[in-house]
């Protein structure tokens, strides 16, 4: 079972809005690719929260895994797209997902039966969020792997979050901009290639996935480095959620023990298909049919 912990929110565009949040997008993709998934989050007792809860039930998620906050609103993000469909995010502070609670008697059994535990940085931006996510990770059994999708958003992380999270990580997904930020946080002054090996060695990582936008992506493992160039897309609607789609197929490949070159190809293809739709998740599960045959 895959356990995903983190934010679910509304991505609010200029003239429409979609359910989003990197952890939810990741969970949604893997569930529709045929994996057993549990998703822990927190929403407000408001219209957006009720809509989300209804949608999660329709999607087949366990509503009991979603906490209802009586005080704080459901999370939201204002998304502005540039002429190439590249998003800029303005994230609402102090919302329900900042207060996800670790309830040991409820969550410990889920953690102990997990094959993979996914988490990110945004949900740890508050002191309470940080302590609760780290409490969940501290209960991880040796058989489970932690997937850290670092997702650094402006003013939503600090050095302690990054360093502590890396110490819990087996699989790291990071982009070039985030790599450079982490280099500065860790005071690493050598080149970026040796920094990847430094991270592998220092934090005993199993896999690092480095995405490079138009320049492709790379995977670093204990067996070596593997890379792929980006395939051009005829028509990009927006790239919101492309990284989450990439992360989901990366996780699928690692769990299914695909060779690194196969993981790179399939993760890149899946992310490119997300760029052809509005928002981060498709409206029809038929979107997944070409991919479920290869899982």
Q: H/E series, N to C?
A: EEEHEHEEEHEHEHEHHEEEHHH
Q: Roughly what percent helix?
A: 25-40%
Strand order of the largest sheet: 5-4-1-8-9-10-11-12-13
The oligomerization state is single chain
Largest sheet: 9 strands, mixed
CATH superfamily: Ribokinase
Rounded to an integer in angstroms, the radius of gyration calculated over CA atoms is 18 Å
Give a quick rundown of the structure.
The protein is of the alpha/beta class. The chain has helices at 22-32, 47-59, 104-112, 127-138, 159-166, 176-185, 192-202, 242-255, 260-274, 289-292, and strands at residues 2-5, 9-12, 17-20, 37-44, 66-69, 75-81, 87-91, 116-120, 145-149, 171-175, 207-211, 217-221, 224-228. The chain has a single domain, classed as 3-Layer(aba) Sandwich (UDP-N-acetylmuramoyl-L-alanine:D-glutamate ligase), CATH 3.40.1190.
């Amino acid at each position: 079972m895959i356990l995903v912990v983190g934010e679910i929110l509304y991505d609010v565009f200029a003239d429409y809005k979609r359910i989003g949040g990197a952890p939810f997008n990741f969970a949604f993709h893997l569930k529709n690719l045929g994996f057993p998934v549990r998703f822990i989050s927190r929403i407000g007792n408001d219209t957006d929260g009720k809509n989300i809860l209804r949608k999660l039930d329709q999607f087949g998620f366990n509503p009991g895994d979603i906490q209802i906050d009586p005080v704080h609103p459901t999370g939201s993000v204002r998304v502005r797209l540039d002429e190439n469909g590249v998003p800029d995010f303005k994230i609402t502070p102090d919302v329900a997902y900042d207060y996800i609670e670790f309830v040991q008697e409820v969550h410990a059994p889920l953690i102990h039966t997990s094959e993979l535990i996914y988490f990110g940085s945004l949900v740890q931006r508050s002191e309470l969020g940080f302590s609760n996510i780290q409490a969940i990770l501290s209960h991880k059994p040796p058989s489970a792997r932690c997937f850290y999708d670092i997702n650094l958003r402006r003013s939503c992380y600090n050095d302690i979050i990054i360093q502590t999270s890396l110490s819990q990580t087996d699989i790291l997904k990071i982009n070039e901009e985030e790599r450079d930020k982490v280099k500065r946080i860790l005071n690493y002054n050598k080149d970026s290639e040796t920094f990847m090996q430094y991270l592998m060695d220092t934090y005993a990582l199993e896999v690092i996935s480095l995405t490079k936008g138009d320049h492709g992506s790379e995977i670093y493992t204990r067996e070596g480095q593997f890379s792929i160039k980006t395939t051009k897309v005829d028509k990009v609607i927006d790239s919101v959620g492309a990284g989450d789609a990439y992360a989901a197929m990366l996780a699928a490949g690692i769990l299914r023990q695909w060779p690194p070159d196969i993981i790179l190809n399939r993760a890149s293809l899946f992310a490119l298909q997300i760029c052809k739709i509005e928002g981060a998740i498709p409206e029809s599960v038929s979107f997944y049919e070409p991919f479920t045959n290869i899982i």
